[in-house]
């Protein structure tokens, strides 16, 4: 390994490793698939090596034969042969090859040195940004997270290629785990609602669950209900609140858990009895494994970084994000993306977060106004605001709907009276059935539970 001492900070590279990799790819037919799996042209340090590898990739992707003569011809036709010092240099590369037995190891050497150069380059730029007092510190942190994400993406060594024997063994192991952990059919995180558990089996690891509704329908209250239920079963919940201050979430949690009047609590008119109950409730809630992050500006990269840190400490089993359209999408602006593409990118990152953290991600989302133009305001998948990619990336899409808000006395699908009735329309379920789940709630949505029709309605139906 050598270093470039002409720069302020040395950049590691290995001429011999790069030469052997390129020479092997030219001489050995079976070498190119291995090399293409690990390397890109920009991973080579020398310009002429980048040019030669780019030519090899063009030929490989075009299914053309690769040897000394055809590579030289490809470079000549692209006016690049002289840039790499002519046919002599290609022959020189091939003369470096003694054996291709250790080709994979040579590829990994080239890749590792590329990653080290990228880290050195990125940290040098970050140092300059950190010293530039005109730069917003949040932008510096974002730049740091982007560097880590970019380098990590190339550094991952996990092998996702599995033969059928391995895949079947892994599948049976996972199925056995579901059987052992099943509690009345719930194999994931308890949702707190019997019918929702029946359809989903609980929130499953690696799933992106989108809960969508119009503003003021109760998305935040419902997600807090889910977080509280999860925490009560010992699940570590992380709640990223982009919309509300943490204290407002604390208010709602206290009201959920106690009998304090929401109006008197909000207006500061609680009496001593209610205050004592609220204090006792707060002490009880303090024991729950819930972490709240109410940073005013959060990107999906920030959420990922925080989640990874908490996961490493064993404090991240389920993630809630409130809500998608408010997430910071500055990174996309640099790439001149429109709003729909920004939201699509954020939704995709949320799905990747669920897979990487191996936990459920509950992502709240706004619906557009089309639902309000429809009789009864009942939402549909097409109402997902600003991007159809949300539907595409989600494993489950739940439409939260409260028909009483639209002055509808009776729910059309169930025939239930709408007072205190909430509807969860499971509009998409990648691994199971869809349908409606009904839940009960009070006017402030601080009390949520399984729905039982009123006695008057039941008696009327019996007649």
From TrEMBL:
Q: Which reaction does it catalyse?
A: ATP + H2O = ADP + phosphate + H(+)
Q: Name one GO biological process term.
A: DNA replication, synthesis of primer
User: Domain of life of the organism in this record?
Assistant: Bacteria
PROSITE patterns the UniProt entry points to:
SF4_HELICASE
Q: Which organism is it from?
A: Bacteroides luti
Q: Recorded E.C. number(s)?
A: 5.6.2.3
What the protein does comes down to:
The main replicative DNA helicase, it participates in initiation and elongation during chromosome replication. Travels ahead of the DNA replisome, separating dsDNA into templates for DNA synthesis. A processive ATP-dependent 5'-3' DNA helicase it has DNA-dependent ATPase activity.
Q: Which GO MF terms does the UniProt record name?
A: 5'-3' DNA helicase activity; ATP binding; ATP hydrolysis activity; DNA binding
Using the record's annotation, list all stretches that form the SF4 helicase domain.
Answer: 182-455
Protein name, as recorded: Replicative DNA helicase
UniProt-listed NCBIfam families: DnaB
| A Pfam family recorded for this sequence | DnaB
- Key words, A-Z: ATP-binding, DNA replication, DNA-binding, Helicase, Hydrolase, Isomerase, Nucleotide-binding, Primosome
> Main EC class of this protein?
isomerase
Q: Does the keyword Manganese apply?
A: no
Per the similarity annotation, which family is this?
Belongs to the helicase family. DnaB subfamily.
């Amino acid at each position: 390994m050598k270093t470039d001492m002409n720069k302020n900070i040395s950049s590691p590279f290995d001429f011999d490793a790069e030469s052997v990799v390129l020479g092997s790819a030219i001489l050995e037919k079976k070498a190119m698939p291995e090399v293409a799996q690990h390397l890109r042209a920009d991973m080579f340090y020398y310009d002429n090596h980048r040019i030669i590898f780019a030519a090899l990739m063009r030929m490989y992707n075009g299914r053309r034969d690769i040897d000394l003569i055809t590579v030289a011809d490809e470079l000549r036709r692209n006016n690049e042969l002289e840039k790499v010092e002519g046919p002599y240099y290609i022959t020189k590369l091939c003369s470096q090859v003694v054996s291709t037995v250790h080709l994979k190891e040579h590829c990994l050497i080239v890749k590792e040195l590329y990653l080290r150069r990228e880290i050195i380059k990125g940290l040098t730029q970050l140092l300059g940004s950190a010293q530039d007092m005109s730069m917003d510190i949040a932008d510096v942190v974002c730049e740091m997270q982007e560097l880590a994400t970019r380098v990590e993406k190339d550094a991952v060594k996990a092998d996702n290629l599995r033969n059928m024997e391995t895949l079947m063994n892994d599948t049976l192991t996972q199925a056995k785990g579901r059987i052992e952990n099943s509690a009345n059919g719930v194999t994931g995180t308890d949702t707190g609602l019997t019918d929702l558990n029946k359809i989903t089996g609980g929130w499953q690891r690696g799933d992106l669950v989108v809960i969508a509704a119009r503003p003021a329908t109760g998305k935040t209250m419902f997600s807090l209900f889910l977080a509280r239920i999860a925490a009560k079963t010992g699940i570590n919940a992380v709640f990223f609140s982009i919309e509300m201050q943490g204290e407002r979430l604390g208010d709602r949690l206290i009201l959920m858990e106690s009998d304090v009047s929401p109006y008197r609590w909000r207006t500061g008119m609680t009496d001593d009895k209610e205050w004592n109950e609220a204090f006792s409730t707060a002490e009880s809630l303090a024991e729950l494994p819930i972490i709240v992050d109410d940073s005013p500006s959060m990107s999906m990269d920030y959420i990922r970084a925080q989640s990874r840190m908490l996961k490493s400490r064993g404090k991240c089993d389920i993630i809630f994000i409130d809500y998608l359209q408010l997430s910071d999408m500055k990174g996309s602006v640099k790439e001149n993306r429109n709003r729909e593409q920004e939201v699509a990118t954020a939704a995709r990152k949320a799905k990747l977060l669920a897979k990487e953290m191996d936990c459920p991600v509950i992502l709240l989302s706004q619906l557009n106004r089309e639902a309000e133009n429809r009789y009864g305001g009942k939402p549909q998948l097409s109402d997902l605001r600003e991007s159809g990619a949300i539907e595409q990336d989600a494993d489950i899409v739940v439409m939260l709907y409260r028909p009483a808000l639209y002055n509808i006395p009776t729910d059309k699908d169930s025939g239930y009276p709408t007072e205190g009735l909430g509807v969860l329309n499971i509009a998409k379920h990648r691994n199971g059935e869809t349908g409606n789940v009904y839940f009960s709630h009070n006017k402030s949505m601080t009390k949520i539970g399984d729905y039982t029709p009123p006695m008057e309605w039941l008696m009327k139906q019996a007649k």
